[in-house]
Amino acid sequence: MSVIVLLHAFGSSGRVWHPQVARLGERHRVLAPDLPGHGSAAGPFSLERAVTSVREVTRAESEPVHLVAISGSVSVALLVALAEPARVAGLVLSGGTARGRSGDAVQRVMMRLMPESMIVGILKGMYAGGRPEHLDHATQDLRRAGKAAILTGLADLARLDLRARLGEISVPTLVLNGAEDKANLPPAEELAAAIPGAELRVIPAAGHIWNLQQPGLFTDTISEFIDEARRSGPGTRN
């Protein structure tokens, strides 16, 4: 039985992983913690506090964990893997980046000028994976995290640049990106090229938060990756 830690997007919560927890939990120990300032976790939020909280989760387990991250939490997973290499058995990274991008500053300025209700209105569809049945939870999670947490996350990511350290990652790594999430494809390609042995998969008809959009495929992808990593044994790469 492997331990899987599922890390949600900034502005979301651990409950976004319900489809994966339900199925993966049949064979694995599955954790979906809320990052600081999200869901039921106390704030405030920052990238540093998020990394600290996930490091604490990995240390509490008796064996190394597989980190599965989406959107901004990809950077959290990378920082945890670099800080706690002995506590991480594998990485699944979807729709994230190892560094700030040129368009992030414009996005932050625009969001800073918007009322929180407008930000929630713009993001809730994406955070629901384009699925109407998830809209209420996405709206609630965005409101709980609030404008300040979202802006803090964007600002922290803008200052980040892990490119020089990606070669230090030695665990099996799968980089994912939805084919419809075109803005995040170049960062995904960069991650896969820089992490030794990493595999890149572009998922047809998938957007950014595609674990809700295509829950069965996302879950199967994680399960197959972990099974392959276990067969390969420690110290090997996919």
Summarize the topology.
Layout lengths: L2 E5 L10 H7 L4 E3 L15 H13 L5 E6 L2 H11 L4 E7 L9 H10 L2 H12 L7 H24 L14 E6 L6 H10 L4 E5 L6 H4 L1 H18 L6
Q: Give me the side-by-side strand order of the main sheet.
A: 2-1-3-4-5-6
Helix count, DSSP H or I runs of 4 or more residues: 9
* Proper CATH architecture: 3-Layer(aba) Sandwich
User: What's the helix-strand series?
Assistant: EHEHEHEHHHEHEHH
Overall geometry comes to globular
Q: Which fold name corresponds to the CATH topology?
A: Rossmann fold
How many domains make up the 3D coordinates? 1
Can you walk through the features of this model?
The protein is an alpha/beta fold and 238 residues long. The chain has helices at 18-24, 47-59, 73-83, 104-113, 116-127, 135-158, 185-194, 210-213, 215-232, and strands spanning 3-7, 29-31, 65-70, 88-94, 173-178, 199-203. The protein has nine helices and six strands, in the order βαβαβαβαααβαβαα. Strands 2-1-3-4-5-6 form a six-stranded parallel β-sheet, with helices on both faces. α2 crosses α3 and α5 (116-127) packs across α6. The protein is globular. The model has no long low-confidence stretch (mean pLDDT 94).
